[in-house]
From TrEMBL:
<feature type="transmembrane region" description="Helical">
    <location>
        <begin position="31"/>
        <end position="49"/>
    </location>
</feature>
<feature type="transmembrane region" description="Helical">
    <location>
        <begin position="95"/>
        <end position="113"/>
    </location>
</feature>
<dbReference type="Pfam" id="PF02109">
    <property type="entry name" value="DAD"/>
</dbReference>
<keyword id="KW-1133">Transmembrane helix</keyword>
<protein>
    <recommendedName>
        <fullName>Dolichyl-diphosphooligosaccharide--protein glycosyltransferase subunit DAD1</fullName>
    </recommendedName>
</protein>
<keyword id="KW-0812">Transmembrane</keyword>
<keyword id="KW-0472">Membrane</keyword>
<comment type="subunit">
    <text>Component of the oligosaccharyltransferase (OST) complex.</text>
</comment>
<keyword id="KW-0256">Endoplasmic reticulum</keyword>
<comment type="function">
    <text>Subunit of the oligosaccharyl transferase (OST) complex that catalyzes the initial transfer of a defined glycan (Glc(3)Man(9)GlcNAc(2) in eukaryotes) from the lipid carrier dolichol-pyrophosphate to an asparagine residue within an Asn-X-Ser/Thr consensus motif in nascent polypeptide chains, the first step in protein N-glycosylation. N-glycosylation occurs cotranslationally and the complex associates with the Sec61 complex at the channel-forming translocon complex that mediates protein translocation across the endoplasmic reticulum (ER). All subunits are required for a maximal enzyme activity.</text>
</comment>
<comment type="pathway">
    <text>Protein modification; protein glycosylation.</text>
</comment>
<keyword id="KW-0053">Apoptosis</keyword>
<dbReference type="InterPro" id="IPR003038">
    <property type="entry name" value="DAD/Ost2"/>
</dbReference>
<comment type="similarity">
    <text>Belongs to the DAD/OST2 family.</text>
</comment>
<feature type="transmembrane region" description="Helical">
    <location>
        <begin position="55"/>
        <end position="75"/>
    </location>
</feature>
Amino acid sequence: MGSTITDAQALVTALRSAYASTLIKLKIIDLYVVFSLATVLVQVIYMSLVGSFPFNAFLSGILSCIGSAVLAVCLRMQVNKENKEFKDLPPERAFADFVLCNLVLHLVIMNFLG
């Protein structure tokens, strides 16, 4: 049991030190992803406490947050300089794709609301 806790602490320390060298723009994208997923959690807790009378609104909120988080993760992958798959893609193009896909996502969500 003691070695498991020590291993977990060593893992957290290693992750923290590796994340410290991450670029600020990637940390901002990570913060946006965490915010989107926290919003999903708040919506699920609210739905479980109050009820889900307008179920389309609940589903729209959940899908909007999850879709935004997925698109932000895609943006992070494209903007990250260490990722060699997208080395020829300029960051401006990646951000334009992110904005356009978010626009399409939220138009679909608004259509789903009715």
